[in-house]
């Protein structure tokens, strides 16, 4: 994902007052919460950042191809 990409939306339990969540950095999502309820300050995503994201992307494509994903 790239900095500024929309990652999701948070709303109150009634589905109102939504807030969009955007990526603050370019990187690779390596983890995310699956809990339907979050509190202020909870981590929603864990993002691995690299100096050269394109090189990492190429390595991941090669890795996926090797695993036949």
Secondary-structure blueprint:
Layout lengths: L5 E5 L8 E4 L5 E5 L12 E4 L4 H15 L2
Antiparallel strand pairs: 1-2, 3-4
Key terms:
single chain; 69 residues; alpha+beta; two-stranded antiparallel ribbon
Order of helices and strands: EEEEH
- Rg value: 15 Å
Tally the helices: what do you get? 1
User: How many individual β-strands?
Assistant: 4
Our measurement of the CA-to-CA distance between the termini, rounded to an integer number of angstroms, reads 19 Å
Structure classification: alpha+beta
| Count of all domains | 1
Low-pLDDT runs of 5+ residues are none
Q: Biggest sheet, open or closed, and with what strands and sense?
A: 2 strands, antiparallel
Question: Average pLDDT, to the nearest integer?
Answer: 84
Strand content: 25-35%
Question: What's the overall geometry?
Answer: elongated
Strand line-up of the largest beta sheet: 1-2
Helicity, in percent?
A: 10-25%
Can you walk through the features of this model?
22% of the residues lie in helices and 26% in strands. It has 69 residues and is an alpha+beta fold. The chain has one domain. The strands form 2 sheets. The protein has a two-stranded antiparallel ribbon with strand order 1-2.
